[in-house]
Amino acid sequence: MDSVRSPEWPVAPLGGLAANSASARYGQPVGGPPTAPPHPPSAPPPPPYRPPTATAPPAPDTRTGPAVAPPIPVKLLIAGGFGVGKTTTVGAISEIAPLTTEAEMTSAGIGVDDPGTHSAKTTTTVAMDFGCVTIDRSLKLYLFGTPGQHRFGFMWDDLARGALGALVVVDSSRLDDCYPAIDFFERARLPFVVGVNTFDGRLTHELGAIRWALAIGDHVPLVQFDARDRLSVRDALLVVLDRALDRAVREKGV
């Protein structure tokens, strides 16, 4: 069978290239060897893969010193009867402006709230008092003052939750007002210290007589302090801390 070719394709000369060949289309010299396109100089091969190694932690900055842990928070209660000096105790030692919930006493409280015959008290705590003090770099006390009136007794369970100890403030001239507080902490099995507040620097009864009247054992510390004096309040709170620590050590030993 005769071959068929397109009329626009010229006949290639003998030994030559057809006009529609790749060499003719893209300018390659006829009859010359194929030329390779230009390439950039070969780059060096990449380095072999190596798994990453663990990096050492950065060296501590000696200019700022080692990191200091925050102080341990300790919750303590300041409890007692009505008008014995709980709010004054918190305010005397707190390193911040204490949170108080004082309300004016009105004629409706006559015969119900008795601040004592020698008291000039005109306000009363209707919820709680709050303050804090840093003992050292490792310890910070958060103080919660309880309300003294019997009608606010329902708050004591909530305020006592998480507390490690309590300071029961006592007025030596009105011992009857502190019995409910002592009974509460004995039932709750919470370490407490009885602090006799010296109003105007005087005591109505000696400490031995007060211990007998309160019917507390020798294992309960009984201290004398002044709720208006910061150092005196500090010493009383340190006794509470020592009592709480002693109990924690004994329980750990068991």
From TrEMBL:
UniProt entry keywords in alphabetical sequence: GTP-binding, Hydrolase, Nucleotide-binding
Bias kind Pro residues: ranges: 31-60
InterPro entries: Gliding_Motility_GTPase, Gpn, P-loop_NTPase
Pfam families linked to this entry: ATP_bind_1
GO molecular function: GTP binding; hydrolase activity
Region described as Disordered: 1-68
Family (UniProt): Belongs to the GPN-loop GTPase family.
Official protein name in the record: Signal recognition particle receptor subunit beta, a GTPase
